[in-house]
Amino acid sequence: MSERKMINDVRDQYAGVARGELSNESAAVRSIANAFGYSEEELNQLPSEANMGLSCGNPLALAGIREGEVVVDLGCGGGMDVFLSARKVGPSGRVIGIDMTAEMLERARAGQQKLGLSNVEFHQSTIDRISLPDNSVDCVISNCVINLVPDKLAVFREILRVLKPGGRVALSDIALKQELPAEVKQSVEAYVGCISGAILIDEYRRLLEQAGLVSVDVTDTGADLNAYAMASDDGCCGGSSCGSDAGQKSLHDGLASVMQSFDANAFAASVRVHALKQSSTQPVNTVPDSSIQPGSKEKTMKTVQIYDKPMCCSTGVCGPDVDPVLPTFAADLDWLKSQGHHVERFNLAQQPQAFIENKEIHQLLSTTGTDCLPVVVVDGKIVSQKNIPRATIWQAWWKDHRPGNRCPLPNRRTGAAERVDVADVDQRRFAG
Q: Is-contact 208 157, C-beta < 8 A?
């Protein structure tokens, strides 16, 4: 199949879905969103046009979107994640949805009108040529779209281009655990249904890094891909109302048919992807000059260890009920890594041996149980217990952090280190 035919087939199929009657009011459509991490509370905020059961994850659970930010959704479809993001950025922020399918954007704009949102806009284009200026975006999200693009490296390079220094990527997508059977690889239904266009997890990670993104994490969420087939069986796509034209298979029905021939979960996975744009032009193994102690010519690198409570994954940012502090904390640690600090994170459920091997941590657990977690250790010294740290972790980076001193913090909009009064850190968390 040629690249042009792939793009045209995808556009035609999704135009048909947009013209159909799939909506957030369908129990089966909502069941797909539920299966991939959206709560009923989130779904209840949406206009009916926005959700068509096309998700394979919830990128907002990882994105850590904040008020005033500029967010871009690649392949926005009916605007589901755009509208949910718009609530998070508030009136001072902006959310831009990009999609190549006019019919999808028609749906999205109808939803925008219903909600009366003035901080949202939609652009028609392919996502390998994003119609936005360089260094203009705080966060890029996408949900089950990049697998559909033939040239994924071009997409990742565009993401890097539009992100501000220190900006972040939060994606939900399909990636492969192993190579697909030949008959599935060649299936048009499987391609349009987000399976056969997917690449191996390791390749996904490699391309992100090749594009120039740093602190790349690609993690299998463990979500059941058979959710699409189950929704189809439940009547999500019965008849012609959910297909592109009368007599044609719908997206969900076609994918369900493909899945009957092989175990999708054995070959493919719903993955969450997080990455950063380097915060400066400096090499990743260096830190800003502001981290150099007065009178010293050496840059101070720190070893940071996080001992977490038992969680389902290494960061705790998967699933429908994510503590909103965790995505921000994960992004903070990624920023530290990008500056050259050595950061390790241990999950009690998955890495109990690390808790045993550290005598101080072992003693704490023996005395207080898991109530002491999370524990933050900097250069072998415990600097924080029980709570996700705010000022404490930053104060420990520099030798002298008495009240009134000023320490460098990353500005979340520019990525640059700025001087901030230590006493103000708890109130500000991060600049921007």
A: no
Cβ neighbours of 16 (radius 10 Å): 19
What letter represents residue 162's amino acid?
V
| Of the residues 247, 276, 305, the one at which a domain ends | 276
Domain of residue 400: give its range: 289-428
**H helical segments located in 141-187:** 152-162, 182-185
CA dist 327 and 333 (Å) reads 10
Q: What is the pLDDT of residues 199-224, one digit of tens each?
A: 999 999 999 999 999 989 999 998 88
**How many domains would you assign to the chain?**
2
Angle (CA) 311 315 320, round 5°: 70
Which residues in the chain land under pLDDT 70? 1, 187-193, 228-261, 280-301, 313-324, 328, 335, 338-339, 389-432
* pTM across the whole model: 0.65
CATH number, position 112: 3.40.50.150
213 close to 159: Cβ distance less than 8 angstroms? yes
* CB contact at 8 A, 92 and 67: yes
